Amino acid sequence: MKVTLADSLGTCFGVDDAIQEAMDPQFRGNLTIIGQLVHNPQTVQQLRDNGVEIVNSADDVITTPNVMITAHGAAKSVHEKAEAKGYKVYDATCPLVMKVHKSIARLVEEGYFPVVIGQASHVEVRGIVTDLKEFSVIYDENDFNKIIDKPKIGIVSQTTNQINTVRSIVEKIRALRNPDGSEKDVKFIDTVCKPTKDRQVAVEKLSSEVDLMIVIGGYNSSNTKKLKKVCDDKGLPAYHIEKSHELNAEWFRGIERVGITAGTSTPSYVIDQVYQAVVSMGEQLDAEKNGSPTSLPVSA
Question: What is the pLDDT of residues 256-276, one digit of tens each?
C-alpha cells in the first residue's frame, strides 16, 4: 500500500506564531487565553500542561495578570473589556484574520452593507462582526434573503472557507442582483487565507491520485472540515481523525493508495504519528495479501 502526504499540510505561520508566543516561558503560570488559541486538542493540552489557563470569554473568572487573544481574532470591544479590567492583553490574532477585519471596515467606510460568508457561530466570524452596527452572515443560498434588499453589498469571507464555494456564492449573489452580469453595487474582497487555499489545492490534486484520504485535525477545526469536504465532493472515501489511535485497519483493506492531509492547526508530530501508523497497517495488509497472515488490530 502506497501512502502519500499532501504537498501542503499542517500548521500555518499564524498558528505557529500564536503557539510560540503562548508557550514563552515568561507566561508559565500567569497567562489566560480567551478561547481556544487554535482548534487542535493536542495543542490545547500542551498549553494547559505549560501552565496556561483557558477561558471561554473575557467575562469568565480570570486569575492571571496577562490575557491573550487567540489566532482566530476578537472584536475590538473584547480587547477593551479585558484592558478595562486591568489585564495586560497580548494579541495572537493571525495577520490574515486581521486582513478580514480591516477589509470589512473599509467596505463599511465605502458605504457597503457588510456581509461575511461563513459560519455565524465560529469564533473568527464572531470577532469580525461583533462591533459592526449592522451586518449579515451568510452560509449558502438559503441566506440570500438577508441581503437582497441592501443597496450596496460588500462581501468578505471567513479565512477557512473553500475558495471555490465562496466564489460560487459571490457569483450567484451578483447574478441575482444584476442579471446583466455586472458587478455593480456588489464588491467582494477575497479573504480566504493562502495557507487554507494551498492545502485545499494540494488535497484536490492528491485526491485524484489515491483511493482513500485521511484528514487530520481537530473536530472543531473549520479548515480541516473543508479539506474533508473537498474529498466528499469528489466522491473519494475520507476519514477525519484527530489522533493516530483513531485509525481503523479495516479502512485500508483492499486499498492500494492512501493520501494524508491535515488542517492548519495540526502539529507536525501528529501528522508523523498518523503517517507511521498508516504505513505500518499497510505493511501488515500487504504481508497478509502475500500469504503471510498477521493479526490486524481494529485500531492503531
Answer: 999 999 999 999 999 999 999
Class of the CATH-defined domain 13-93: alpha beta
Q: C-alpha 266: how far from its chain's center? A: 10
Sign of CA dihedral 202, 204, 205, 208: positive
Q: Please give the full DSSP string across 24-72, using - where no structure is assigned.
A: -GGGTTSEEEES-SSS-HHHHHHHHHTT-EEESSTTS---SSEEEE-TT
**Could you tell me the residue ranges of all domains in the chain?**
2-9+194-289, 13-93, 96-188
The dihedral sign for the CA sequence 127, 130, 136, 139: positive
The radius of gyration computed from the CA coordinates of the chain, to the nearest angstrom, equals 22
Retrieve residue 249's grid coordinates.
485497519
Contact assessment for residue 12 and residue 195, using Cβ atoms and an 8 Å cutoff: yes
Task: Assign domain 2-9+194-289 to a CATH class.
Answer: alpha beta
Alpha carbon distance 82, 104 (integer Å): 23
What nine digits make up the cell of 109?
Answer: 467606510
pLDDT for res 300: 44
C-alpha to C-alpha distances, 162 to 124, 152, 168, 212, 224, nearest whole angstrom? 15, 24, 10, 20, 11
Residues serving a catalytic function are 124
- For 96-188, CATH number out of 3.40.50.10540, 3.40.50.720, 3.40.1010.20, 3.30.70.100 equals 3.40.1010.20
Weakest-pLDDT range from 114-128, 173-187, 198-212, 261-275: 173-187
In the chain, the percentage of residues whose pLDDT exceeds 70 is 97
